[in-house]
Design goal:
heterotrimer; A mainly alpha; B mainly alpha; C alpha/beta; A: mainly alpha; three-stranded antiparallel beta sheet; 3 strands; C: alpha/beta; six-stranded mixed beta sheet; four-stranded antiparallel beta sheet; about 35% helix
């Protein structure tokens, strides 16, 4: 289950953040689903070969963000309605829009023109789906 | 639980040192066989080798068994076991003495029995043989004490050199004691006061040396 | 029974050219503590004192609830100790050593021992003198790991090992942590290893403990701030900053008690904060030692 986890020391970010991100990723793309139990803190620490305290911190932060829930004596599981999937898509959309705006500016297009292009793209997609 | 660790340590020493014991037994046996061959030269050569075998084992046991353990840094490994320093020292002392007694008792009793039974050497010499055979035991005790208490190779070598160079002198003076040599060629052993006093003195010296070693070791607090 | 695996309070030891001073150290049960410090700092001496091999001059030592060195024999039944200067018997095989240990300790696990032989890539029939340095270290670790002691005390277990061997050892150490009743104390130069697997970090230099705390908290307190001070503006002296290096308008400030307000304080003084970086344990190690030596006036 933890095969694809990779904690890198050369990654400048703290280990607990890396762990958090990789857990959130799995939830966002749907590999880990709502309510699914996740490894205990100690078990994950052993699997990743990192200190227990680091995993504990990651779990605490994740719980604070509402991504996971921990029940005393029962372990931890993925929280309901993490909204991570949606959040991920929102992030993606925001990135793409920013990029599009930047390129348009470089080309000298006015915002009206960009809007027009966006509508055209939408129509093309609808065409394709009809066929 | 305690007993088994000390026993484990003693068995360990046997396993590590048994080659020396066996060599000494073989060498001593060969020397005795040579004496039995008869004739002045074989008796003298065999006789000397007999004592050399005792001296060698008496010296190499503490030098190799004890000092090497410290020099080669095995001490930290042993100290990680559930033993105190005093238990370790006791095990070392006991093991060393037992390991020495194996060849010493065997060879000395064999020598005495051969003298009694075969008489190639006159039985009157038995007291002298015993007195001379106890010298390596004294040397062994001194060197063992020096290496356990002194803890360095230097002390061991100093004791080694001291003993090696004094054996000859002691032999010389012992053989000059008239009360001793007068009956040495006789047909039966004579246990006069001279012989008994010397024997008792040697045994006391051995006991004193080993006892002092144990006492001094028990006052140490740190091992490494 | 206390809940600390190791507790040192006010421990001191004087040698001719070196002394250990007022050592306070606490390792809660179920955690791993990394002990770091430069050569000659006193790591080995501290470890020897807590193993009962050296008698402290002052202070109290409790390991697994036992007073040391008075109750060391009882304690050592449950402690596995490996130090870098330890040697096994060259002419004997690893198997002989395994049997020797097995004859003494009742909780030797033969199945786990076999597994470790495989994982470490050593064979019981091999004589110690035929093993490389890395294999000898692994052999000694095998001898303590297979009896599953409550406390592992390791003096530089990964020093001088190749990356593969180091990884094998780290993996076994983290495996130990699966049991929350077992604890580990290890000393190391390798800050990467310490940073990765320690729960607690203790810094020691010149016979004194400089820092001893939770690793995550510790890493959070240290930051490097890259600053740009316009001409004529002097950098303010702020609390929590231990070092400032300046060249022209650019400066690097090292903080050992970072709070977000620190960056604001600079901004308020007219200094621009370009970047705030976290520091690796190695960078912290060097900065910490330099800072503490300055403070002592060394």
């Amino acid at each position: 289950m933890n095969g694809a986890f990779a904690i890198s020391q050369s990654d400048k970010r703290p280990m607990y953040l890396q762990i958090m991100e990789q857990i959130k990723q799995r939830i966002a793309i749907g590999d880990w689903t709502e309510g699914q139990p996740i490894p205990s803190i100690r078990q994950l620490a052993v699997d990743l070969e990192v200190s227990v305290i680091t995993v504990k911190r990651a779990y605490l932060e994740l719980e604070r963000e509402g991504v996971i829930q921990t029940q005393q004596g029962k372990g931890s599981h993925v929280a309901a309605n993490t909204g991570l999937g949606t959040r991920l898509r929102e992030q993606e959309l925001a990135q793409h829009l920013e990029q599009a705006t930047r390129i348009a500016a470089m080309m000298g297009l006015r915002p009206k023109e960009l809007e027009h292009r966006l509508r055209e793209a939408g129509d093309r997609l609808a065409e394709k789906e009809r066929i | 639980m305690r007993g088994s660790v000390v026993r484990g340590l003693i068995l360990k020493d046997w396993r590590l040192q048994r080659a020396q014991i066996i060599c000494s037994l073989c060498g001593g046996a060969f020397a005795l066989a040579l004496v039995q061959w008869g004739g002045e030269t074989p008796i003298v050569v065999g006789g000397v080798w007999f004592f050399v075998a005792l001296i060698l084992v008496g010296h190499t046991l503490p030098l190799l068994g004890i000092i090497n353990e410290r020099k080669k840094q095995h001490l930290a490994f042993l100290m990680s076991l559930p033993v105190s320093y005093i238990q370790y020292t006791t095990a070392k002392l006991v093991a060393n003495v037992v390991l020495f007694l194996i060849p010493w008792l065997t060879l000395v009793s064999a020598a005495v029995m051969l003298i009694e039974i075969r008489g190639v050497v006159p039985p009157g010499a038995i007291p002298v043989v015993l007195i001379l055979a106890l010298l390596p035991f004294v040397g062994f005790s001194l060197i063992t004490g020096a290496v356990l208490v002194g803890e360095t190779e230097g002390w061991g070598l100093a004791a080694n050199v001291f003993c090696s160079s004094t054996y000859g002198l002691v032999w010389y003076f012992l053989t000059r004691i008239p009360g001793l040599m007068a009956h040495a060629t006789g047909p039966s052993p004579v246990w006069n006061s001279t012989a008994l006093i010397i024997l008792a003195g040697e045994c006391a010296l051995i006991t004193l040396l080993l006892g002092l070693t144990y006492f001094l070791q028990s006052r140490k607090r740190d091992f490494v | 029974m206390s809940d600390s695996a190791i507790e040192l309070s006010g421990v001191g030891k004087k040698y001719r050219f070196f002394s250990l001073d007022n050592i306070h150290l606490k390792l809660p049960e179920g955690q791993i503590m990394g002990l770091i410090g430069p050569n000659g700092a006193g790591k080995s001496t501290t470890i020897r004192i807590l193993m009962g091999l050296v008698h402290q001059d002052t202070g109290h030592v409790r390991v697994l609830g036992f007073r040391m060195p008075a109750e060391q024999v009882a304690a050592k039944w449950d402690i596995g100790f490996v130090s870098e200067d330890m040697r096994l018997y060259e002419s004997m095989t690893l198997g002989w050593h395994m049997n020797f240990i097995q004859s003494i300790y009742p909780n030797w696990d033969p199945a786990y021992a076999q597994l470790l032989l495989k994982r470490f890539g050593v064979r019981a029939e091999q004589k110690i003198k035929g093993l490389s340095h890395g294999q000898r270290v692994k052999a000694m670790l095998l001898l303590v790991l297979a009896r599953k002691p409550k406390l592992l005390v390791l003096d530089e277990p990964t020093t001088g090992l190749d990356p593969v061997a180091r990884h094998e050892i780290l993996r076994e150490l983290t495996n130990v942590m699966a049991d929350d009743g077992r604890s580990v104390l290890f000393s190391s130069h390798n800050t990467q290893d310490v940073e990765q697997i320690s729960d607690q970090i203790t810094f020691i230099d010149r016979g004194r403990i400089i820092d001893s705390m939770d690793k995550e908290m510790y890493l959070d307190r240290w930051r490097r701030l890259r600053l740009e001070a316009p001409l004529g503006i002097e950098l303010p002296a702020l609390p929590g900053i231990v070092d400032v290096r300046q060249e022209g308008r650019l400066a690097i400030a090292t903080a050992n008690a970072f709070v977000p307000d620190l960056a604001n304080a600079y901004e308020r003084a007219g200094v621009r904060v370009q970047r705030i970086e976290s520091m690796t344990l190695e960078e912290i190690f060097v900065a910490n030692v330099e800072h503490s030596r300055e403070e002592v006036g060394a």
